[in-house]
């Protein structure tokens, strides 16, 4: 009896997993796993895909992720690059929709500029202190 | 000389306090894991999707700019919370909402089975096999529900399944979009 019950439990778990599995029933998008024929275009696409965030699996890039949605994003990137679109234009298109979050490439914006300015300020400050300590007449 | 050292120390204290105040403000903000669409307030991008099932027409951007506001539901038969929000969608439809939908990465027979099991509140269902429309409107998962006004401008995005207490809010947004 216990064996039958545990078998039923296993079956229930397997059945419960079916709807999730079905996400992969549709074949991947044409360019999800297929490289572009032109090596230069494929290199540009790869470079861009490595710096775009997978929205389903948020700490991976779409180049790293096997999520179907990441595959569809790779298809977007590759087919747009094959059509001659500039990689940065594709990035901006995605940022318009998902915000800076979708891109791993840092950008200077109204909120991020201190991150870029602060090291320069600190460097200048350090130089100034060193000059006053060591340089100049006593 | 001592005075200058004092002054420097106070500056350090002020700096540290500012930093802690910043931490306190950021930590007291509620965590928001959602990726919000940047397309709110913008016209829906042009698209035309084939029908996902044979008894409902497909969906195009032109269908959304005919003067009547719509709820645009992004769903999939393989998505568990989409089944959970089915009663709420039925209620919205019963209260007069015109609901159109986009089925993400779905086979016609799976969509059919899903609708047979959970009901069909949709007047149109487009099949988005490559998630293209999903990307175009800035949706990052299923289910999501957009309020689109009669001119085809996206007015609101609801992320995740529609709960019972979201229904009046969505009806309100839809009414607002109709004015």
Automatic annotation (TrEMBL), chain A:
The keyword GTP-binding does not apply. It comes from Altericroceibacterium endophyticum. This is Cytochrome c-type biogenesis protein. One of its GO terms (molecular function) is metal ion binding. Residues 31-133 form the CcmH/CycL/Ccl2/NrfF N-terminal domain. The lineage of its organism: Bacteria, Pseudomonadati, Pseudomonadota, Alphaproteobacteria, Sphingomonadales. It comes from the Bacteria. GO terms for cellular component: plasma membrane. Possible subunit of a heme lyase. Residues 1-22 form the signal peptide. Belongs to the CcmH/CycL/Ccl2/NrfF family. GO terms for biological process: cytochrome complex assembly. It holds the Pfam family CcmH. Keywords: Cytochrome c-type biogenesis, Heme, Iron, Membrane, Metal-binding, Signal, Transmembrane, Transmembrane helix. The chain crosses the membrane at residues 113-131. Gene3D superfamilies: Cytochrome C biogenesis protein.
From TrEMBL, chain B:
The keyword Transferase does not apply. Residues 38-176 form the Thioredoxin domain. Keywords: Cytochrome c-type biogenesis, Disulfide bond, Redox-active center. Coiled coil: none annotated. Its main location: other. It is found in: Cell envelope. Pfam families: Redoxin (PF08534). GO terms for molecular function: disulfide oxidoreductase activity. GO terms for biological process: cytochrome complex assembly. PANTHER family: THIOL:DISULFIDE INTERCHANGE PROTEIN DSBE. This is Redoxin family protein. It comes from Altericroceibacterium endophyticum. The lineage of its organism: Bacteria, Pseudomonadati, Pseudomonadota, Alphaproteobacteria, Sphingomonadales.
């Amino acid at each position: 009896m216990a064996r039958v019950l545990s078998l039923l439990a296993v079956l229930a778990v397997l059945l419960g997993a079916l709807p999730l599995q079905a996400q992969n029933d549709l074949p991947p998008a044409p360019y999800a796993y297929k490289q572009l024929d032109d090596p230069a275009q494929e290199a540009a696409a790869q470079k861009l895909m490595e710096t775009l965030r997978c929205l389903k699996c948020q700490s991976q890039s779409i180049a790293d992720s096997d999520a179907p949605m990441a595959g569809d994003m790779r298809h977007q990137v590759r087919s747009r690059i094959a059509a001659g679109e500039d990689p940065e234009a594709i990035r901006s298109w995605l940022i318009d929709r998902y915000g800076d979050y979708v891109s791993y490439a840092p950008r200077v914006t109204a909120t991020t500029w201190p991150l870029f300015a602060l090291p320069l300020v600190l460097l200048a400050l350090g130089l100034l202190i060193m000059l006053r300590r060591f340089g100049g007449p006593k | 000389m001592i005075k200058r050292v004092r002054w420097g120390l106070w500056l350090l204290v002020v700096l540290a306090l500012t930093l802690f105040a910043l931490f306190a403000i950021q930590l007291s903000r509620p965590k928001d894991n959602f990726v919000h669409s940047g397309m709110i307030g913008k016209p829906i991008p042009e698209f035309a999707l084939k029908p996902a099932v044979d008894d409902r027409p497909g969906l195009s951007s032109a269908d959304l700019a005919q003067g009547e506001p719509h709820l645009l539901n992004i769903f999939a038969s393989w998505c568990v919370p989409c089944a959970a929000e089915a009663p709420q969608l039925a209620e919205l439809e019963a209260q007069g909402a015109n609901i159109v939908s986009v089925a993400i990465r779905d086979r016609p027979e799976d969509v059919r089975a899903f609708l047979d099991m959970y009901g069909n509140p949709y007047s149109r269902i487009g099949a988005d096999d490559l998630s293209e429309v999903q990307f175009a409107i800035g949706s990052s998962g299923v289910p999501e529900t957009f309020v689109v006004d009669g001119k085809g401008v996206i007015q609101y995005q609801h992320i995740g399944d529609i709960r019972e207490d979201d229904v009046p809010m969505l009806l309100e947004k839809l009414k607002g979009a109709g004015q």
